[in-house]
Design a protein that fits this description.
The longest helix has 22 residues. This protein has one domain: Nucleotidyltransferase, domain 5 (2-Layer Sandwich), CATH 3.30.420. The protein is of the alpha/beta class. It is about 40% helix and about 20% strand. It has a 6-stranded mixed β-sheet, sandwiched between helices. It contains 9 helices and 6 strands. The protein is globular.
Length: about 270
């Protein structure tokens, strides 16, 4: 990997952030897949540092939080007692600011109470001032958000009830179930009703699945190592915040949030 030129590294990373798999990147660039993974881990570590250093004292008035599912090595139903603790379901906790579309942090882990707590405390330390938070109906948020944010939050949960698709063929299997009812529950503070929403963060799930091949459903492009999954997430979020112009903003989320003055070139993530 150390023998790769800067142009070759840039070609590899450009391919990855555009949603190509490791093997397709190998075919396009001529770089061996093992080298690609090592480069991903190296650049991912750099991106993690950028996110940690830059995402501080942020003013996010309306935050939406959701979790997106993936798996590492094998799906949860295939996990055995003697398998690595890294194997099975993995969840990425993602908050997004409704106005600037900034993603201030993220967390890769299990959908457990302790992992939710770690994520929420990390988010709290990055936010300056009072904020409004909307989450889905995950029970761990009910006590976790007030515990982390105290009195500095207006918190509501949006619970969506889905119905049966009504068919028993392939169309029913691959089609989303219809939403039958949406229940808004105010948990603490006085959240503004018009901003109780998870639409933006749910749309961001699509962005993640399109930009990271390992998140694409019904494929064999899953993560074989947790280290690679975390590196891919770090690369994606750094690129999303600082390098990628958001279509609705006409600038990057970092510029909209006032923590960057210009669109970062992709080379800034390689340095």
């Amino acid at each position: 990997m150390n023998r790769l030129s800067q142009d070759k590294k840039l070609a590899v990373i450009s391919s990855l952030v555009e949603g190509n798999s490791v093997r397709s990147t190998e075919r396009m660039t001529g770089v061996h897949r093992d080298t690609i993974c090592r480069l991903l881990v190296e650049v991912g570590g750099r991106c993690e540092q950028i996110m940690d250093q830059r995402m501080r004292v942020l003013r996010c008035n309306y935050l939406q939080i959701d979790e997106i599912w993936t798996f590492c090595q094998k799906k949860q139903r295939r996990v055995r007692k003697d398998d690595s603790p890294e194997a099975g379901d993995q969840w990425v906790f993602v908050p997004i600011d409704e106005k600037t579309k900034l993603i201030p942090t993220y967390y890769v882990g299990k959908r457990h109470r302790e992992d939710t707590k770690i994520f929420l405390w990390d988010l709290y330390r990055r936010i300056h001032g009072r904020t409004q938070i909307t989450t889905d109906g995950l029970n761990h948020y009910t006590a976790g958000v007030p515990d982390a944010f105290g009195l500095d939050v207006d918190f509501a949960q949006l619970v969506k009830l889905f119905g049966d698709y009504g068919q028993h063929d392939a169309e029913a299997r691959y089609s989303p179930s219809p939403i039958m009812e949406v229940i808004s529950k105010v948990r603490t503070g006085d959240p503004e009703p018009e901003h109780i929403s998870t639409s933006h963060v749910e749309r961001n799930n699509l962005t993640m699945r399109m930009a990271m091949r390992r998140f694409t459903r019904l494929t064999n492009a899953f993560s074989k190592k947790l280290e690679n999954l975390k590196a891919a997430c770090a690369l994606h979020f750094a690129h999303y915040n600082f390098c990628r112009v958001h279509q609705s903003l006409r600038v990057t989320p970092a510029m909209a949030a006032g923590i960057a003055n210009e669109i970062w070139p992709l080379t800034a993530l390689l340095a």
